[in-house]
Amino acid sequence: MQYFDFKNLTESDYYDRLEGAELEAFQTERFREMLCYVAEHSPYYSRVFKAVGFNPDEFRQLTDLRKLPFTDKEQLQKYNNDFLNVPIREVAEYVTTSGTLGDPVRLMLTERDLLRLGYNEARGLSIAGVDAGDIVQITTTLDRRFMAGLAYYLGCRLIGAATIRVGVGAPQLQWDTIREMNPTAIIGVPSFIVKLIEYARETGIEPDNTSVKKIICIGEPIREDNLEWNKVGQYIRSQWQVELFSTYASTEIATAFTECPYGQGGHQLNELIFTEVIDEEGNPVEDGCTGELVVTTLGMEGMPLIRFRTGDLVRKYNQPCACGRNSARLGPLVGRKGQLIKFKGTTIYPSAIQQIMDHLPEVETYVIEAVQNQFGEDHIQILLAVKGDKDTIVNILKNQCRSHLRVTPEFLFRDASYINHLRNRPEMRKPVIFIDNRMK
After folding, report:
1. CB of 330 within 8 A of CB of 273?
2. Residue 296: exposed, middle, or buried by beta-carbon count in 10 A (0-12, 13-18, 19+)?
C-alpha cells in the first residue's frame, strides 16, 4: 500500500476537484491498492477473497467491486481480531462504537491511522471554513473510547486552530469558557446546543453578543432529508446568529462528511473513502434516492473495511456543488435499518418522530419506545414529561403525527427524572432517544 502524506493539507483541494474519467481512475487505483493490502494482511478478507475466487490483482475498474461480498457489523463483531492487519503491538489506540444498535464494536488504530484521523477531520473542518485563526470549543467527550472527540482535537491541531476541551454537559462552564476564552467555533451535539441556548435564555446571556461565529453539529441531524433545516436546525438558527454546519460520520468508517457553507450535504473526501448507496437487494440506487450507505475505507492501516454496510440510510448527490467542489455529497441520515418500525401499515424511523417531539418546547423530555403487541406487531409508545396542560400538548402532538407520519403513537406520561434516567445511561456516550424492546 502506498503511503499517503497525512500531514500535508496543501494538495487536498486537488481531490475535491476530480471528476469524470480522472476521478474514476483515481478511485479505481486507490480501491485496488486497498484490496491488495487486505488480501495480504487481513486474515478475514484473505479468507473471503479465497472463498469467492477473487484476485485483487485483476481489479481493473470500479464495476469489478460487485464481485466482492459486503461486510456487515455482525461480521465485524464476530471476527473482530481477524480484521486487524498489523501485529497487535502496533496498535496505538482502541476505540469502540457507541452501541446504539447493540453491543459496541471495537476498532484498533495504528499510529498512521491516527494521522489519517486527524487529516480527515482537518479536511472536514476546512470545508466548514475553520482555519488556523479559529479557537474551537469542543463540547464532546475525548474519553470513554470515543473516536469523534479525538478526531476533532487532532484535526484542529493539524489545521493550527486553538482548542478548548470543555467536554460534555456543564452549561455554566461552557458559557464561562465562551466569555473568558472567546472561541470562534463550537463543536457539539445539536440537542446540547439547544440546552445551551435554553440556559442562556434563563440566565440572561445573549448568544449573539459572544465571539462564536460557527457551530459544527455532530451525532444528530439538523436538516430534513430534502436538505432543508429541520426543527432543531431552525430553532438554533433563530436563537443564535451563527453559521451552522451538519456532519455525518461513524466510528467504523473513521471518515467525516462535512457541509460547506452552501449546505447541500456533507462532502465526500475522495482520497479517504469510497461510497455506494444500495437498495434492499444490494443494487445501486439512483442519484438522490434513499438507500443504505456502503463504504470502503481508503488509507486505513489497522482495520480497513471493504464494502462495509453501515446500516445508515442516506441520499447521495453526485452533481458538482455551488462551492466549486466536485466531490459527491451525502444528505442527512434518514434512519437506520435496524430501527425500522412497521406501525399500522406505515414504515417509520424514530428520527421522524424525534423531529416532531423536538419541535414543541412544552415537551420537557421524552424517549421513543418500540414494542410488540399481543399479535407480534410493532407498536410505538412515547414516554414523555411536559410543561403545561397535558391534554392540550398531546392533542398538538397527535395532530403533528397524523400530518407528518399518517399514524399516531401512544403517549404515556412519566416523571422527567425517570425518562432522563432512561436517556442518560452511564454506559452510553450519547443520549438514548430510541429504545427497541421488540422481540428479535
Report:
1. no
2. buried
Q: How many helices (H) and strands (E) does the chain have?
A: 12, 20
Please, are residues 402 and 395 in contact by the beta-carbon 8 Å criterion?
A: no
Domain 340-436 is of which CATH architecture?
Answer: 2-Layer Sandwich (3.30)
**pLDDT, tens only, 219-267:** 888 998 889 998 889 999 999 999 999 999 999 999 999 999 999 999 9
How sure is the predictor about 315, in pLDDT bands with cuts at 50, 70 and 90?
Answer: very high
> Cell numbers at residue 191, please?
440537542
- Alpha-carbon span 315 to 294, nearest angstrom: 12
Residue type, 437: N
Question: What is the rounded average pLDDT for all residues in the chain?
Answer: 91
Residue 125 phi, psi (nearest 5): -65, -40
Rg, the chain, Cα only? 22
**Which 3 state secondary structure label does DSSP give 265?**
coil
- Please, are residues 215 and 240 in contact by the beta-carbon 8 Å criterion? yes
Are 75 and 228 spatial neighbours (Cβ–Cβ below 8 Å)? no
**CATH code for the domain defined by 1-336:** 3.40.50.12780
Report domain extents, the chain: 1-336, 340-436
| pLDDT at position 107 over 60 | yes
pTM exceeding the 0.90 threshold for the entire prediction: no
HEC letters along 313-338: EEEEECCCCCCCCCCCEECCCCEEHH
Residue 52 has pLDDT above 70, yes or no: yes
Please state, in angstroms and rounded to a whole number, the distance separating the CA atoms of residues 398 and 91.
51
Among all chains, which residue has been given the C-alpha cell 479525538? Answer: 150
Average pLDDT for 41-52:
96
The helix or strand, by DSSP H or E, that contains position 106, with its residue range, turns out to be: strand 106-110
- What secondary structure letter does DSSP report for 87? -
C-alpha cell at 65: 467491486
